[in-house]
């Protein structure tokens, strides 16, 4: 028979434990208050850095870097502060090494005479290609200072978009009035060699490479869906709707067609089915995730529809832009999605955490026409109607480190008191300046 514990003993032990529980709760509350205080300080310093004039470039940069230091050390939930910290770091970097005569910053390049219509990465981390409404296709090398453009093609026609073959050796140039042109990405062995290796003058609305083979899928001006190879073509079907974008699902070779009337058609061989979205707005851009499970649909409304290709259902609608979407892209591991817009910005969204605010890349002076992630996901390249191209590090750390390579001092004691206060002990903002 088990001996029972008297109720008086149980009550005594309960009362004895209460101070311990209260103390633990108090400590937890104090820790949360400290996190909130640090978060408030980070937000304040980031905003004050943004407000600091560009002619105080070093101070502007150091305040942004110190806000980053506190942000990194703060264990709080980063649903908002990451956005302000990123923008303060970016605009601080912009004015370190800024060219005031040409109004050009370190991450900006000019090579087109008119709007940059399309941006596409090649087969390595440093090489990408751009097309402009000036008829040029330009190759860029990030590791050569970003300011050494090489014009590999030039025509007297408007280019709609570019696409790169899977092996990175061919470029598809879709023109408005001259059909399609296929270029080689290999540098010519002599000055007489031309990058153009094939041309088809049939007028098309859009086109993309088929995966794993040197063929392209196009929708002609008459609405015919065709597969074109070197000297061969096959008609798959026909659409009566105006086509505004195309993608190919590399897992099954299904061809996806986005239309100006707001429909997405999925062509499986010669059969087509439609993705139903309740509100119909023109589909300006599409992208398929690297695991082939997600489809991002950028619409004229200014939102992005995230669609599950496996289960054929809408996941969610991502809103935030103030004007039409012009481009969308997934990063290499499908954790981030970018959207470019006519509101002059690109936004980088966390796919798995809808609560988290996107990074906002907003330094173009006109519509952002195209954008893409680098193959490793560490940068975003953008092309704009302001004729310029920009690259944007996605990682805050890269921007923070650049500040410490260019600024040879830390915050003074007086600046520390002004921006941080007296409750936190003075430390050197950049370790190398200790």
Question: What is the helix content?
Answer: 10-25%
Q: Any guess at the CATH architecture of the largest domain?
A: 7 Propeller
Please list the strands of the largest sheet in the order they lie side by side.
1-28-27-26
Number of helices: 5
Class computed from helices, strands and strand pairing = alpha+beta
What is the percentage of strand-forming residues? 35-45%
Judging from the principal axes of the Cα atoms, what is the shape? globular
CATH topology of the largest domain: Methylamine Dehydrogenase, Chain H
- Distance, first to last CA: 72 Å
At the first level of CATH, what is the class of the largest domain? Mainly Beta
Show unreliable segments. Answer: none
Number of domains: 2
Give Rg in angstroms: 27 Å
Query: For this structure, what is the CATH homologous superfamily of the largest domain?
Result: YVTN repeat-like/Quinoprotein amine dehydrogenase
Instruction: Please tally the β strands and state the result.
Output: 28
Largest β-sheet summary: 4 strands, antiparallel
Mean pLDDT: 90
Précis, in short:
With 434 residues, the chain is of the alpha+beta class. Helix content is 22%, strand content 36%. Helix 1 (7-51) packs antiparallel against helix 2, helix 2 (57-73) crosses helix 4 (396-406) and helix 3 (81-94) runs parallel beside helix 4 (396-406).
Which key features would you list for this structure?
single chain, four-stranded antiparallel β-sheet, alpha+beta, Methylamine Dehydrogenase, Chain H, 5 helices, 22% helix, 28 strands, 2 domains, globular, 434 residues
């Amino acid at each position: 028979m088990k001996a029972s514990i008297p109720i008086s003993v149980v009550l005594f032990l309960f009362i004895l434990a209460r101070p311990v529980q209260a103390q633990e709760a108090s400590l937890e509350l104090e820790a949360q208050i400290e996190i909130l205080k640090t978060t408030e300080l980070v937000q304040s310093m980031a905003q004050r850095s943004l407000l600091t004039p560009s002619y105080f470039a070093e101070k502007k940069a150091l305040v942004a870097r110190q806000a980053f230091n506190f942000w990194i050390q703060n264990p709080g939930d980063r649903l908002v502060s990451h956005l302000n910290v990123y923008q303060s770091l970016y605009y601080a970097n912009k004015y370190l090494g800024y060219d005031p005569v040409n109004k050009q910053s370190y991450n900006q390049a000019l090579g087109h005479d008119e709007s940059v219509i399309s941006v596409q990465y090649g087969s390595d981390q440093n090489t990408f290609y751009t097309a402009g409404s000036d008829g040029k296709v330009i190759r860029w090398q990030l590791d050569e200072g970003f300011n050494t453009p090489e014009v590999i093609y030039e025509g007297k026609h408007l280019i709609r978009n570019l696409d790169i073959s899977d092996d990175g050796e061919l470029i598809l140039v879709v023109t408005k009035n001259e059909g399609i042109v296929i270029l080689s990405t290999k540098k010519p062995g002599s000055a007489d060699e031309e990058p153009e290796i094939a041309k088809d003058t049939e007028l098309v609305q859009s086109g993309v490479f088929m995966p794993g083979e040197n063929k392209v899928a196009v929708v002609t001006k008459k609405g015919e869906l065709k597969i074109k190879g070197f000297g061969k073509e096959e008609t798959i079907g026909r659409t009566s709707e105006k086509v505004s974008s195309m993608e190919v699902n590399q897992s099954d070779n299904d061809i996806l067609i986005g239309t100006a009337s707001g429909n997405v058609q999925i062509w499986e061989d010669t059969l087509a089915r439609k993705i139903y979205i309740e509100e119909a707005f023109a589909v300006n851009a599409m992208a398929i995730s690297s695991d082939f499970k997600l489809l991002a649909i950028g619409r004229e409304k200014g939102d992005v529809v995230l669609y599950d290709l496996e289960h054929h259902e809408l996941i969610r609608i991502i809103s935030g832009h103030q004007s039409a979407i012009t481009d969308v892209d997934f990063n290499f591991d499908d954790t981030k999605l970018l959207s470019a817009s006519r509101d002059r910005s690109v936004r980088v969204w966390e796919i798995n955490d809808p609560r988290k605010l996107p990074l906002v890349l907003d330094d173009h002076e006109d519509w952002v026409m195209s954008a893409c992630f680098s193959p490793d996901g560490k940068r975003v390249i953008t092309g704009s109607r302001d004729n310029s191209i920009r690259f944007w590090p996605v990682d805050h750390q890269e921007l923070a480190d650049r500040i410490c390579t260019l600024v040879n001092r830390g915050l003074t004691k007086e600046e520390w008191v002004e921006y941080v206060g007296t409750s936190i002990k003075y430390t050197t903002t950049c370790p190398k300046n200790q």
